[in-house]
Amino acid sequence: xxxxxxxxxxxxxxxxxxxxxxxxxxxxxxxxxxxxxxxxxxxxxxxxxxxxxxxxxxxxxxxxxxxxxxxxxxxxxxxxxxxxxxxxxxxxxxxxxxxxxxxxxxxxxxxxxxxxxxxxxxxxxxxxxxxxxxxxxxxxxxxxxxxxxxxxxxxxxxxxxxxxxxxxxxxxxxxxxxxxxxxxxxxxxxxxxxxxxxxxxxxxxxxxxxxxxxxxxxxxxxxxxxxxxxxxxxxxxxxxxxxxxxxxxxxxxxxxxxxxxxxxxxxxxxxxxxxxxxxxxxxxxxxxxxxxxxxxxxxxxxxxxxxxxxxxxxxxxxxxxxxxxxx
Length: 327
Fold this sequence. Notes:
Blueprint: H1 7-17, E1 26-27, H2 31-36, E2 39-44, H3 54-62, H4 67-72, E3 74-77, H5 81-93, E4 97-102, H6 107-115, E5 119-123, H7 130-141, E6 144-146, H8 152-171, E7 178-182, H9 187-199, E8 204-210, H10 215-222, H11 247-256, E9 259-263, H12 265-277, H13 289-295, E10 305-310, H14 317-326
Parallel strand pairs: 2-10, 3-4, 3-6, 4-5, 7-8, 7-10, 8-9
Antiparallel strand pairs: 1-2
């Protein structure tokens, strides 16, 4: 039976991460306050090792492997940010790593993963199952499979983001009303929701997703997991294209979340440009959906204190240049 992570697991993860992961800033007092009428706090996981929050969960999972497991290596599957998080954690711990990645993943994410020493096995995300490929590789090698979200240690590691948000908001003398989280499989959301339930129980936690991949929003409304359409149109949010909420993550999220928000690719593009031009921050599409939801008015924030995750900053140079040139 799968173990459900709790707040003690998040605290334990924070101790393991101390001195290894960055305590990223919670940025306050930006032009967003005047634009929205709320107090918007930006959690800058773009500044985490490897450019996303994923290092947190990867380190918490890998550092607990014993010597035999470390020698056998790890296998993960990811469109890019979990790949880099696992690759970097493995590099620091001296663990061989193989990552199953879609052939259409952004080149920067593929190259960064290779640069960290991981071997990459590419697949066609439309016709092949990354889960099946990774499971076969792990079984053949006796390696440990490191899921990107449906794992209690991964969730607990990501939950340290929420732990920091609550602590840093308190340092600002603020009480959180809402937290908006960029969401794909739901690991970051679940970890943050666990932390908020303990440290800021009155705060509403919301998912933010691309409009054609809003499986959490629909699942929360329906009361059961909903799958995205297999022929859903492509989205620039390459990091947020999981087919449906994780089984474990949804079991955690369903009772703890307030609801889900969905944004269009155009709204995401505007958020990326706003972050670059106005906030002087580089944010990738999947890392900008929560900001896009606030900017587009998907959540009423006037008079409220709202934390927003900027969950990743690994954007292709060409895409950022195009967006800044054409918007």
